[in-house]
Amino acid sequence: MGTNTNFGVDFIKMKPNFQIQEFNITSIESQTLDKKIEFQDIEYSMVNTAKSVSYFEHRQIDLQTALNETKNLDWTFLDNGISIINNKTDDCIFFRRVALDRWYVDTPIRLPRFAGLFWASYVDQSIVEVILRLFFEENDWFCATNWHEAPDLFEEVDTKLRILRK
C-alpha cells in the first residue's frame, strides 16, 4: 500500500470492501410497531361472557385488540364492560355495551384529583371506534362525543337494564 499526501493529510490507498445489506421490510415494520407499543403503556380490564381480565393483571392492550374486544362484548350479558387506562397520560375510559349498537361510555372528571364524578355519554359502535383510535393515538378523544356530568349514571343504567331485561 502506498500513501498519498493531499492538503497535508496522509491517505492510505485501500481497496474498498463493499458488502450488500439485505433488508426485510416486514421485520423493519414489525420492529417499528414493537417500539411504538413498547412506549405505549396502556392496560385494560374487562368482563364478558367468555372472558374476564382483572384490573390486577395489568394486561397490556393495543388498538387492534381493543377494537376486537369491544366488538365482541356480549350486550345480553348484563355486567359486560371494558376499562382502558393509559398509564403514560393517566387517561381512563370505560365502555359498556347496552344494546347491539348502543354503548354507555364514561371517563373520570379530573379536578385536582378524582372526586367520584364522571363524564358519560351514549354512543354507537362507530363512535366507540373513533374514541379508541384517538385514545391510542394519544390525541384529543374527548371531543368525539357530547359528554354529560354523571355521578350516578352508571348505577342508573345498571338499574334500568335490570328492569328492562326482566
Low-confidence residue ranges: 5-25, 27-35
Largest sheet entry:
8 strands, antiparallel
Number of strand segments:
10
Helix content: 25-40%
Helical stretch tally:
4
Strand content: 25-35%
Order of helices and strands: EEHEEEHEEEEHEH
Number of structural domains: 1
Radius of gyration: 26 Å
Mean pLDDT level? 78
- The dominant shape is globular
N-to-C span = 94 Å
Summarize the structure.
By secondary structure, the chain is of the alpha+beta class.
Keywords, separated by commas or semicolons:
single chain; 166 residues; eight-stranded antiparallel β-sheet; globular; two-stranded antiparallel sheet; alpha+beta
Summarize the topology.
Elements: E1 3-6, E2 9-12, H1 25-38, E3 42-47, E4 52-53, E5 59-60, H2 63-71, E6 81-86, E7 91-99, E8 102-110, E9 114-123, H3 125-136, E10 148-149, H4 153-164
Antiparallel strand pairs: 1-2, 3-4, 3-5, 3-6, 6-7, 7-8, 8-9, 9-10
Helix pairs in contact: 2-3
Structure description:
- By secondary structure, the protein is of the alpha+beta class.
- It has one domain.
- 28% of the residues lie in helices and 33% in strands.
- Strands 3, 4, 5, 6, 7, 8, 9 and 10 form an eight-stranded antiparallel beta sheet that branches. Strands 1-2 form a two-stranded antiparallel ribbon.
